[in-house]
């Protein structure tokens, strides 16, 4: 895993930001105790000043950043440049999307919203990092035990937190009807996080099984497709429920129109691809004829999918049970590929690889 170099400029900026936040916070706290002698009165004085609240919130953000960096060092170590880039892109979209949602729930904006939004964004960052690390497993031939220990720890921690927050949001919805609008939004967001985490955990397990296998796992892509299909279904159902409730009681929720469209398009696209795959792979052994020696002689006898040499099968030859079927198959377009390579390709795309 290539290490990412932390920019000295970024560290310097964070140090300056932290120093300024600490100085400002110390100043307002000292001013509060100067104005009021006891702790309770000083706290009340701070709570009545918008400027003091802003300074304290800013210091809270700085402390959250430090805690996030500590958790990142514990669970992930040094981040790769691509992971840092993904964090910036996704965080910007998540913030703008939530601000757009506030146009609907602006009457319910208070301190609890800031805490819930901060918690949501904080957890999203670690969900994104987990997904990136699971994708890294497919590119790395070997991974250390520390990598797996970190992944199991962070996935279990996030799973417990997601379930707790979903239960908390639903409980608030039931007990506090006056906060229904904003809690519907957070309940849906935490549910989406749980569905996304289920996908990440399932793919991590599949990758672990594949890494422990001596031979390439031909059926892995089908399991991955099934996980993606179930995840898209759960996310689409959640978005549609949230969309219907908000549309009924508050008006058109512009912040999730794009999410509903993108998730719905992805879900139905996966169903279409699955149906095409089943149609394309039905009776493959008899549907596509075996390539002869003459067919291979017209090409370089190399499967362009796996880059291995192809050898024509003689009359009566067959693949032993449990062995990889590397019989050269000839498509209607004239191109030739290994049977198992062609099947794996059709799981992803239902067209000739050339």
UniProtKB/TrEMBL annotation:
One GO CC term on file: endoplasmic reticulum membrane
Compartments (UniProt record): Endoplasmic reticulum membrane
GO molecular function: ubiquitin protein ligase activity; zinc ion binding
Catalytic reaction annotation: S-ubiquitinyl-[E2 ubiquitin-conjugating enzyme]-L-cysteine + [acceptor protein]-L-lysine = [E2 ubiquitin-conjugating enzyme]-L-cysteine + N(6)-ubiquitinyl-[acceptor protein]-L-lysine
Span of domain RING-type: 303-354
E.C. code: 2.3.2.27
InterPro entries: HRD1_E3_ubiq-ligases (IPR050731), TPR_SYVN1_N (IPR057992), Znf_RING (IPR001841), Znf_RING/FYVE/PHD (IPR013083), Znf_RING_H2 (IPR024766), Znf_RING_synoviolin (IPR058051)
Coiled coil residues, start to end: none
GO BP, sorted A to Z: ERAD pathway; proteasome-mediated ubiquitin-dependent protein catabolic process; protein ubiquitination
Pathway: Protein modification; protein ubiquitination
Keywords from the named record: Endoplasmic reticulum, Membrane, Metal-binding, Transferase, Transmembrane, Transmembrane helix, Ubl conjugation pathway, Zinc, Zinc-finger
Transmembrane segments: 14-33, 53-76, 109-129, 149-170, 182-206, 236-257
Main localization of the protein described in the UniProt heading: endoplasmic reticulum
Protein family per UniProt: Belongs to the HRD1 family.
Protein name: RING-type E3 ubiquitin transferase
Organism whose genome encodes this protein: Jaminaea rosea
């Amino acid at each position: 895993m290539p290490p990412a170099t932390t920019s000295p400029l970024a560290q310097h900026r964070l140090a300056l930001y932290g120093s300024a936040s600490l100085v400002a916070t110390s100043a307002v706290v000292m001013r509060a105790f100067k104005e009021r002698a006891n702790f309770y009165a000083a706290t009340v004085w701070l709570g009545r000043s918008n400027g003091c609240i802003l300074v304290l919130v800013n210091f809270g953000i700085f402390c959250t950043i430090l805690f996030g960096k500590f958790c990142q060092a514990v669970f992930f170590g040094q981040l790769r440049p691509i992971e840092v880039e993904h964090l910036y892109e996704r965080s910007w979209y998540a913030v703008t999307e939530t601000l757009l949602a506030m146009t609907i729930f602006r009457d319910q904006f208070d301190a609890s919203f800031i805490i819930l939004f901060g918690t949501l964004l904080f957890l999203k960052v670690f969900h994104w990092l987990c997904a990136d690390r699971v994708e890294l497993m497919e590119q790395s031939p070997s991974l250390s035990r520390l990598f797996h220990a970190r992944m199991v720890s962070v996935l279990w921690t996030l799973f417990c937190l997601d379930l707790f927050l979903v239960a908390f949001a639903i409980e608030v919805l039931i007990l506090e009807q006056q906060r229904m609008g904003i809690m519907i939004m957070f309940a849906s967001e935490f549910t989406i996080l749980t569905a996304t985490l289920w996908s990440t955990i399932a793919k991590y397990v599949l990758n672990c099984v594949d890494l422990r296998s001596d031979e390439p796992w031909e059926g892995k892509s089908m399991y991955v497709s099934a996980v993606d299909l179930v995840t898209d279904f759960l996310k689409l159902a959640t978005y549609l429920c949230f969309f219907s409730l908000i549309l009924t009681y508050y008006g058109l929720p512009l912040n999730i129109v794009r999410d509903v469209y993108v998730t719905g398009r992805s879900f139905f696209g996966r169903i279409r691809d699955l149906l095409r795959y089943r149609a394309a792979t039905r009776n493959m052994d008899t549907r596509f004829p075996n390539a002869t020696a003459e067919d291979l002689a017209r090409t370089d006898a190399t499967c362009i999918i796996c880059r291995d040499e192809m050898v024509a099968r003689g009359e009566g030859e067959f693949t032993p049970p449990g062995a990889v079927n590397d019989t050269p198959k000839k498509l209607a377009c004239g191109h030739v590929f290994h049977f198992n390579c062609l099947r794996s390709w059709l799981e992803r795309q239902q067209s000739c690889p050339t």
